[in-house]
Design a protein that fits this description.
Elements: H1 5-32, H2 43-97, H3 104-125, E1 146-149, E2 152-155, E3 163-167, E4 170-173, H4 178-183, E5 185-186, E6 192-196, E7 205-211, E8 223-229, E9 232-237, E10 242-247, E11 253-256, E12 259-264, E13 272-277, E14 280-281, H5 283-296, H6 302-362, H7 366-390
Antiparallel strand pairs: 1-2, 3-4, 5-14, 6-13, 7-12, 8-9, 8-13, 9-10, 11-12
Helix pairs in contact: 1-7, 2-3, 2-6, 3-5, 5-6
Length: 399
């Protein structure tokens, strides 16, 4: 093999470029704090780090999702707490109004307060989160869910519940639609509802209604309690078939087929009361019914007083059902918030472990890197010095 000056020069330059490249790589490692920055520098470790980074990014997204859900659920819980406060105030007003000594002006003033509560409930039902989305609109979060009407309120949202993923294989609803929370409220005692006929002329007022095991099991049917003579009644089903009959005294109860209905006062002959399965009713309808009763029922007769008492008692029963329903929703919210808190704690621990694994693979050993850098600097300096001494050597200088 012929060794020429140009060959020596090329070899020297290639060696110096290699030394400079290694030196530059070490400098980059020290600057970045990473033992490698490209997959080619350590393919095996780079693959593992990439997997860890993907898992870490996913975990952080789950935490972001859960934090967003946590905020919305906390706002919802606070809002429903205020709704309960407003309904409790309305219940107190209904109890206050259920007093025969009040004048028409007194009842009108209470009706005005009830209307103010109705407006407050509408405001709460249309609460928005920090992003301007309505809490109770379901999937229709950009549409105002409730609009007050003459009979209560119209629901403009849908029946959907938004869900977010807070962990692998775990999703959670970040809210509840307004139809479920405020419209689907059972009437009466939640099983059946007793009501007085508007044509009654006596003073019979409905009291507590309960499902009585002693009287059998309520079959979900519709029945009428008819007073056929002073102190005498009969119960008929929806086909007008006689179920039972008996005598009544003031403050007594009438029981049949799992139903027990308490009555006070003296029903007139021809008066009737119905028992029917509970249905769903909006909170706003309940409020409006109370307002309407306060504004229209009355006239000073004992029969008018009984009608008002029955209307207000029905309203109080429905408010109680609404309060129970809201308590159940808030319990569900609390359970979801607990799940989020638990998952956030799990995610925090997972992220620490992932970051530790990434660090063990990619973090730089500074002491070793600096030692390597010094060695590379020394080697490069020596190579440059040797190159400068040998590049001018030639046999022609000695001829």
């Amino acid at each position: 093999m012929r060794v020429t000056p140009s060959l020596n020069q090329s070899q020297f330059l290639a060696a110096i470029e290699s030394l400079q490249s290694n030196l530059s790589q070490t400098q980059n490692q020290i600057t970045s704090g990473l033992s490698f920055t490209t997959a080619s520098q350590n393919p095996t470790a780079a693959g593992a780090v990439n997997n860890y980074n993907q898992a870490l990014a996913q975990s952080r997204q789950y935490v972001t999702n859960s934090s967003s859900a946590q905020t919305r659920l906390s706002i919802e819980d606070s809002t429903l707490s205020q709704v309960q406060t407003q309904l409790q105030s309305l219940r107190d007003l209904a109890l206050e109004a259920n007093n025969s000594t009040l004048s028409a002006a007194d009842r009108s003033a209470i009706a005005t307060q009830a209307k103010q509560i109705q407006a407050s409930l509408a405001t709460l039902a249309n609460t928005q989160d920090g992003n301007g989305e309505y809490l109770f609109g379901g999937f229709a979060s950009q549409t105002q869910p409730f609009t007050l009407t003459a009979s209560g309120a119209t629901y403009n949202g849908d029946q959907g519940n938004r869900v977010v993923q807070i962990a692998a294989g775990q999703t959670i609803a970040d809210g509840d639609n307004g139809d479920t929370v405020l419209n689907q409220i059972k009437t009466g005692n939640g099983t059946f509802v007793a009501a007085a006929s508007t044509a009654n002329t006596g003073t019979g007022v409905l009291g507590a209604t309960t499902a009585s095991a002693a009287a059998g099991t309520y079959d979900g049917g519709t029945y009428s309690i008819n007073f056929t003579a002073p102190g005498a009644y009969e119960v008929r089903d929806s086909n007008n078939v006689l179920v039972t009959s008996g005598s009544y005294r003031d403050g007594g109860s009438i029981s049949f087929r799992g139903v027990q209905v308490a009555l006070n006062g003296t029903p007139a002959t021809g008066d009737s009361f119905t028992v029917a399965p509970s249905t769903n009713q909006s909170v706003f309808t309940t409020v409006q019914n109370i307002v309407t009763a306060l504004q229209t029922v009355g006239g000073g007769t004992s029969a008018d007083t009984a009608k008002l008492n029955n209307a207000l008692a029905a309203g109080i029963d429905n408010i109680d059902q609404a309060l129970t329903g809201l308590s159940n929703v808030r319990a569900s919210i609390g359970a979801r918030l607990n799940s989020i808190t638990t998952q956030q704690s799990v995610a925090g621990s997972q992220q620490v472990q992932l970051q530790s694994s990434i660090s063990s693979l990619q973090s730089l050993d500074y002491a070793s890197a600096i030692t390597t850098l010094n060695q590379q600097n020394t080697t490069l300096s020596a190579a440059l010095q040797a190159y400068s001494l040998t590049q001018n050597l030639s046999l022609f200088k000695f001829l």
